[in-house]
Amino acid sequence: MASDPxxxxxxxxxxxxxxxxxxxxxxxxxxxxxxxxxxIAKATELFIQHLIRKALLRSKDGQHxxxxxxxxxVQGIERYEFLQDIVPSKITYQQYLEMMAKSEVDEDIx
Length: 110
Prior knowledge:
Elements lengths: L3 H8 L4 H9 L11 H23 L8 H10 L16 H16 L2
């Protein structure tokens, strides 16, 4: 019979081994408790579900979430500011060129 932690790990959708690898990659992490990895995995799953529900409410058809829906949530709600580098708003190539030209001009100004 499987122990309770093993059963809980099978119920998770995110791979525990990947979560452990990500946690170990942090320079501030010295050791990782056996119980913490499934808890972090479950918390991450719940956060993703919450974010998707928010995006679904703002989606055009209410049934499909697009990248733009997620980006709008991240850009529009202060609570999700920490995700702005991961889920940036889409821009056109022309907008990118204009931004790069402006940054070059700004660098030339002493």
